[in-house]
Amino acid sequence: MKKRLETVKDRIKKVAGTSGRNPEDVCLVAVSKTMPAPIVREAIEAGVTILGENYIQEAREKIGILSSLPVSWHFIGHLQTNKAKYAVKLFDLIHSVDTLKLARELNKQANKINKIQKILIQVNIGEEASKSGAFVEDLQYLAKDISLLENLSVKGLMIIPPFYNAPEKVQPFFSALRELRDQIRKAAIPNVTMDELSMGMTGDFETAIEEGATLVRIGTAIFGERT
Ligand SMILES: *Cc1c(COP(=O)(O)O)cnc(C)c1O
Question: Could you tell me the CATH superfamily of domain 2-13+25-223?
Answer without folding.
Answer: Alanine racemase (3.20.20.10)
